[in-house]
Write a structure and sequence with these properties.
This protein has four helices and four strands. With about 110 residues, the chain is α+β, with helices and mostly antiparallel strands. Keywords: Signal.
Length: about 110
């Protein structure tokens, strides 16, 4: 398995804390991600990662939680076995897939 580049470690580590029980502040409100998950305001990252793994082949190389005026969204980049990057956008409140973009999306789908 290829290691995650150091520049992405903070974003990935921060979001993985959702699964471990530690709190990470969300700007600008100061709420913790953990509290938002506990209040069912944000779908746990593990659920999103499980969905991607079950539907696509590749390795997640970057994860971001975006907050645009209270509209939370996960942006997840997947590196396919062929070396293409696919970007997923999920609604963090519902877990719904908003969009998928990149090269050879169909080739990365699991059958």
């Amino acid at each position: 398995m290829t290691p995650i580049p150091r520049t992405w470690t903070f974003a990935v580590a921060s979001l993985l804390l959702l699964c471990t029980g530690s709190a990470v502040p969300v700007e600008p409100s100061g709420k913790s991600l953990r509290e938002a998950v506990e209040r069912n305001e944000i779908v746990p990252l593990k659920s999103i990662m499980d969905w991607i793994e079950s539907h696509y082949r590749g390795q997640v190389v970057e994860v971001e939680l975006e907050n645009e005026g209270g509209d939370f969204g996960y942006e997840i980049d997947l590196l396919t076995p062929e070396g293409s990057k696919i970007e997923f956008q999920f609604d963090a409140r519902t877990g719904d897939l908003r969009s998928v973009s990149g090269k050879d999306i169909e080739g990365a789908r699991r059958k």
